[in-house]
Amino acid sequence: MDLALSEMQEMLRTTARDFLGTECTGKYVRQMEQDEKGYTPDLWKKIAGLGWLGLPLPTEYGGSGGSLLDLVMLLEEMGRACFPGPYFSTVVLCGLLLAEAANADQKSALLPKIASGDLVMALALTEPGNSYQPRGIRLSATRNGDTFVLDGTKLFVSDAHIADTMICAARTTESAGGSDGITLFLLDSKIPGISITLLKTIGGDKQCEVKFDKVQVSRDKVIGELDKAWPALERTIERAAVAQCAMMSGGAQQVLEMAVKYTKERRQFGRLIGSFQAIQFHCANMLTDVDIARYLTYEAAWKLDEEIPHPVQVAIAKAGVGDCYQRIVRLGHQVISGVGYTEDHDMHLYYNRAKAGQILFGGADLYREVIANNLDL
Fold first, then answer.
1. Using CA atoms, how far apart are residues 332 and 347, in angstroms rounded to an integer?
2. Could you tell me if 240 and 171 are in contact, meaning their C-beta atoms sit under 8 angstroms apart?
3. What is the mean pLDDT of the chain?
4. Residue 18 and residue 1: Cα distance in Å, rounded?
């Protein structure tokens, strides 16, 4: 594994940091937390113009053909800036899933629109049980001639309230193992029978409850093979977990930098607080965790890109990075102290996102079980 970044990756990181430093300030992030949409179309078009929406998508469909590691570089900077909006749901979840599982006509119709910023999408995957396992998919899709009738509820669907199109995972056939019998459907978000309720979240992101009441979908809206969608969904969850690690790693880096900057400005007892050993050790421990988080993320992304067997690497990354980020924000609060708890300070933005990111796409305990099982425990 070569940990050196390519010239393109270095350029992407620099461009993203400069752009987001200007366009995505803490003030803007707080405004979007209060905004119902959670993003501004103007900024969405700007990032489309930079090529970010098509970064990991195939070149034949208007994308750049970038790797997951390339995407990780961008997402680190987005996590560093607490970037709001439907990038993750549209590009990371739906865009990559379509690129893998959709047919040629579906790709031609949808992927160029994603890359150009003309289409916002959402993946309706988890249900009230909040399981990322196949057994957690219980929303039914009953066949009725050339159509399917969808009934059930999806929960924690990111950006469903602003999505033009949704991908919904539904159970078309019962199976003993659970992984068979799952099918993906492509849905217009405004068709009759779909109701969407925006939820209040700690992380400032826009997640929704989506109810399907006898929603009729034609056979040509099936993505991939009938009853065989779970392998593609499993790979989507793996990529999403690593992508979330990148967001958390970027946020952790920013927390470290805010804390270090504060220690060089704040004076107490007649001296800069950075001269106290306890504060120095806090910062040293934060830097250690930042590097652990970053390289766990890079290794997992690299293995997925290279298609190297990775039975536990994604699990180690998701559990490890989530724990690192939690420790970093706690230490950051100790260093910055009381001012970090005020609404005007950015620290609380990262504290909230650290907690939310640890849970998304499976909490640390879920991934520790994966690691333990791999050890035959």
1. 8
2. no
3. 94
4. 28
Residue-wise pLDDT for 109-164, tens only, equals: 999 999 999 999 999 999 998 788 899 999 999 999 889 999 999 999 999 999 99
- Say if CB 244 and CB 314 are below 8 A apart: no
The closest alpha carbon to 57, from 83, 87, 16, 30, belongs to 87
Where on the phi/psi map is residue 291: left (φ > 0), alpha (ψ -120 to 50), or beta?
A: alpha
Range 111-116 contact pairs with CB under 8 angstroms and sequence separation of 24 or more = 111/57, 111/58, 111/61, 111/62, 111/63, 112/61, 112/62, 114/53, 114/54, 114/57, 114/90, 115/48, 115/53, 115/54, 115/57, 115/61, 115/62, 115/63, 116/48, 116/53, 116/54, 116/62
Sign of the C-alpha dihedral computed for residues 75, 77, 51 and 296 taken in this order: negative
Give the three-state DSSP class for 27.
helix
Residue range 190-220, pLDDT digits in tens? 999 999 999 988 888 999 999 999 999 999 9
Residue 217 in tokens: 């979908």
Kindly provide the b/e burial profile for residues 357-366, where b requires at least 16 CB atoms within 10 angstroms of the residue's own CB. bbbbbbebeb
Token pair for residue 369? Answer: 């079980």
Note whether 289 and 324 are within 8 A (CB).
Answer: yes
Structure tokens at 24: 């995505």
CA distances 132 to 234, 307, 363, Å, are 9, 22, 10
Helix (H, G, I), strand (E, B) or coil at 226: coil
